[in-house]
């Protein structure tokens, strides 16, 4: 009788787990084709269409390959990816990477394929300047798609309306211009503080201008923030805050969602400028009343800071790239080589209104704003990726929150640096 | 209730003195029956409640980024994570906010809900519509409530625009650290009071009309009747509602996360334990640390819930607890005495009050237990 009980219990457990185990593996499909899954973050419009057409073209050349494209909402990407990567059977073969500490974490967990010797010469030569952002210890793990240098995006019409004829090149000129715009009854600077990172970008840029390159590197590699220039960066932000030149309620303004967001304020001529990365023209385009590029959008580099020990031409930006899972078939790298060629990179630039990673394809950039950003990027003597990406989510998020706290009047420039040190203990 | 009924057949079989072999095969059959019927539920409970708790406790001992396995890609740090959590001022603040929200929810919603229920329990025109209206916010999803209020309460939003028309300059309801927690309390009260009111109305409707009639004959005024009859007999409903409200407050996450975003909650002073866990665990990519936070929240919630059950819900739970028959009887006697005392105060016959309270006490508890 005891046996029967055990059998019954066993049976119910087996039933349950066999139901749960109905997942499928994705590496080889039933018709003998090699299957590749790709996760990217363009869920709408031209960007989504671009990936589908690239996959279709590749499959036409390679009839034995089938590429499955899965667009994932940007904010969901990190969490879904983290879960999916736990099991090679459910993990995508190609997926988005922004480099930095997170790429290193994945590499250290043995989840990425070393593609240093597998990428084509086109990738190696034409994307050279962006490769370091996607490399860990000298080995390449992802193929860059676009470079996204940051800086000030502004409305030429509103600047003219306020009587600002020349874009500011240094900190004093910048403050004068901002106050002049404010006096003309226009909101000078839009800021999406709800998402924290847009507010923190101000701090990053001031740090880039205040800190010598050596100090900057010491912080990013060793986590050494003892130099006084880090506190100086916070003081610069405070100084700007005192001028009252940000949009009203910037702490609860999102960066990219809807007309009330900071990008929306620019798109609808409700504010004259914002500090953002190279994706901004595309985001603004989607938020204009007619959904077309903002005609009078311009760009100028982040102004130089007097007595700053940092490089005045240094640029901070992002690199959007596609990484390859350690379990992916060889054809996955082939596909990345395929889309790195000039004509596909040119199409990418158009679809996303951005700067392609391939140097040869950068002629496809036509809008004056993006051209300005590209020029600043090519003239830069020092290029780094966003500080929160460099430090990884843990320290990066704490840093972002520390800056927001300071801007809300709940902390000092010293507290921002202390936040970074506190967060390091948790990770 | 069901447990008490299930207890009877065994006693009957024992009393009936059947032959030994038949008796043992009977109880065996019953054992198998219970086993088969309970295994699916048990597997779900173990797999989705107990196992995750154990796993979280295990992960909580590591510094781990969520990639690979904690034993390989993480570092074992023992109780370090817990030390950091308990000394982190951000967590202490989040805990403070959570407890404040729990207490304020009870203090604000309780009296209001009883008053609303008193009003809506009277017969008047349009009562159905008002009952529905007051319940609507509870049905609307948290995301919609959060987005809606978030947009209206922005410093450039609709609320301040209306206030400006009457000559009042409104503050930044969401970002101002002095105002934010009260804004949150307002939204929580608005959203959840409907549920409290419905519970109270249900409780009031199961109070027998005869009690009021008897009181009226004795010349009691309206407020005397509410104070001496309604409130005492509503006791068990209030205790259950308070329990559900407490648990809801401890778990509060969605409203805060949607209105204040991923980062600004702690700046504005509205962070809760749950938003702290998501921010420090998932968003910061510290999965080991996040799991440790989850364990801390689990322990805090468990202690509060068990304490409340033991000291406050104690008398309501009898009958729902299966135990030796004698013990149950003794407890019943105690509660009978209490019921007698109270019904004397209400100036009505003891038996009526006892039966009404008993039915009140048992019905909602089973719901609560299921939830």
Automatic annotation (TrEMBL), chain A:
Residues 1-20 form the signal peptide. This is Sugar ABC transporter substrate-binding protein. Keywords: Signal. Pfam families: SBP_bac_1. It comes from the Bacteria. Gene3D superfamilies: Periplasmic binding protein-like II.
Automatic annotation (TrEMBL), chain B:
Signal peptide: none annotated. PANTHER family: ABC TRANSPORTER PERMEASE PROTEIN, INNER MEMBRANE ABC TRANSPORTER PERMEASE PROTEIN YCJO. The lineage of its organism: Bacteria, Bacillati, Actinomycetota, Actinomycetes, Bifidobacteriales. SUPFAM superfamilies: MetI-like. Residues 327-341 have a biased composition (Basic residues). Residues 324-371 are annotated as: Disordered. Residues 95-308 form the ABC transmembrane type-1 domain. It holds the Pfam family BPD_transp_1. Belongs to the binding-protein-dependent transport system permease family. CDD domains: TM_PBP2. The chain crosses the membrane at residues 34-61, 99-120, 132-152, 179-202, 238-260, 287-308. It is found in: Cell membrane. Residues 342-356 have a biased composition (Low complexity). GO terms for biological process: transmembrane transport. InterPro entries: ABC_transporter_permease, MetI-like, MetI-like_sf. This is Sugar ABC transporter permease. Its main location: membrane.
